Amino acid sequence: MEALDRLRAEAAAVLESAADAGAIEKARVNFLGVKSGQLKELQKLLSGLSPDDRPAGGKRFNDAKAEIVASFALAQDRVASSQQSGVPNVEAIDVTLPGDPVRMGHLHPITQTIRRVQEIMARLGFESVDGPEVEDQWHNFDALAIGAEHPARDPLDNFYLAVARGSDPLLLRSQTSTVQIRVMERREPPLRIVSLGRVYRPDTADATHYPMFHQVEGLLVEPGVTLAHLKSVLRFFASSFLGGDVRVRFRPSFFPFTEPSVEVDMEWGGRWIEMGGAGMVDPAVLEAVGYDPDKVSGFAFGLGVERIAARRYGVADIRDFYRNDVRFLEQF
Ligand code: DAH
User: Fold this and answer.
1) Which of 75, 82, 158, 258 has the fewest CB neighbours in a 10 Å radius?
2) Rounded Cα gap, residues 279 and 299, in angstroms
3) Ligand 1 binding pocket includes 282 (Cβ within 6 Å)
C-alpha cells in the first residue's frame, strides 16, 4: 500500500503547484478520474487483498482518497481567490455608464451680438463685409469729408502708427465708416451692406468707454432713398434685436459725411437710450467715390456694439466684456 502513500504525496504536490483552473482539471482527471484515474487503478488492487487485510486496506484507501479530494478543493479555492485579488489591478470599464460631461465653451457675448446683428440685417438684404483695422487718412477722414483741420483728426484722439518720414500717416481706424468708402469705391449701386468690427480711440477706460470697441456700420445706396427708409430699417433692427416693439427717435445732429445727420435713440423698458449716429449720405461723399448724387441717394448709420449688447444683457460696465472673467462670460 506504499503506492497509495506515493499517490497521495504526488497529488498533493501537483495540486499545490497548479497555477490555474486548467491545471487543476488535468490533475483531477489524472488522480480522481472515474474511468482511468490513478486512484481507480489502485482501488482495483483492493480486491486482491486477503479478507483479513481488506478492512484496513479499504480504510487507507478511503483516507487517501479523502485527502486528495481535500487537496483538490484547496487548490480550487486558491486559484479562484488569486483571480479575484487580481481584479483591482484591472480597470473595469462599464461602457453603459454616462460619460464625464465635457466642459463646453461658447462664443463671447460681443461675438454673439455681432452674429445676431448680421443675421437680422441679412433678413433686410444687407450683406456683411469687412474692412482693415489699420487705415489710411483717405478712408478714415478725407473721403468722409472730415477736413484737414477737423478736430477728429487730432493725434490725441487717434492711434496713429509710426510710419517712415514722408509717407502717408496710418492709424487704427477710429470708426467703421471707413468701410462705406472701401465698398463704394469697389462697387456700383444698388448697395446694402453692414460691417461690424473693432475701432480704436485713446479714451480712458470707464463704465462706458474702452480704447477698443466695436461698431455696426450700415449703408444703403439706391435711387430714391429717404430718411423714412432709414427709420424703418433701424426700427426693424431694434425690435428684432431687443425684442418687442422698440420705438426709434431721431434728434438733429451733425456728421461731416451725412446731410442731414441724426442721433439715433431707442426706447426700451421705458427709457430712451442713445444708440449712435446716422443720416443721409452727403452728396460730397457719393462724389468722392465716383457716384452720381443726382441718380442715387443713400443712408448710413453707425451704432455701438457694446452699447446695444450692454442694453440687451443688462450689463452696467462695458469693461466686464474684456476682463475675461469666466464667471461673467458664463452667463451668456
Ligand atoms: N462714425 C460715427 C462715429 O463713430 C458714427 C456714424 C454717424 C456712422 C453717422 C454713420 C453715420 O454711418 O451716418 O461716431
Assistant:
1) 82
2) 6
3) no
177 lines ligand 1 (CB under 6 A): yes
For 330, residues 6+ apart whose C-beta sits below 8 A from its C-beta are none
Options 1.10.1750.10, 3.40.50.300, 3.90.950.10, 3.30.930.10; which CATH number does 109-329 get?
3.30.930.10
Please check the confidence at residue 18 and state whether its pLDDT lies above 80. Answer: yes
Q: Cite the residue boundaries of each domain of the chain with CATH code 3.30.930.10.
A: 109-329
Decide if 313 contacts 109 (C-beta within 8 A). Answer: yes
**Grid cell in block for residue 306:** 457694446
pLDDT, residue 228, reads: 97
User: What ligand 1 atom has the least distance to the C-alpha of 175?
Assistant: 4
* 255 CB within 6 A, ligand 1: yes
pLDDT tens for each residue of 238-256 = 999 999 999 999 999 999 9
- Using DSSP's 3-state secondary structure scheme, residue 194 falls into strand
Could you identify the residue written with the cell 443675421?
119
Number of Cβ atoms within 10 Å of the Cβ of 201: 17
Among candidate residues 257, 144, 133, 125, the one with its CA nearest the CA of residue 194: 125
pLDDT grade for 61, boundaries at 50, 70 and 90? confident
What burial letters (b/e) apply to 163-188, b meaning 16+ CB within 10 Å? eeeeeeebbbbbbbbbbbbbbbeeee
Conformation bin of residue 279: beta by default, left when phi > 0, alpha when psi is -120 to 50: left
pLDDT interval class at 277 (50, 70, 90): very high
Segment 86-120, tens digit of pLDDT:
555 567 888 899 988 998 899 999 999 999 999 99
Residue at grid coordinates 487718412: 137
| pTM for this model (two decimals) | 0.72
299 lines ligand 1 (CB under 6 A): no
Q: In this model, does residue 22 exceed pLDDT 80?
A: yes
Residue-wise over 229-245: b if at least 16 C-beta within 10 A, else e?
Answer: bbbebbebbbbbbbeee
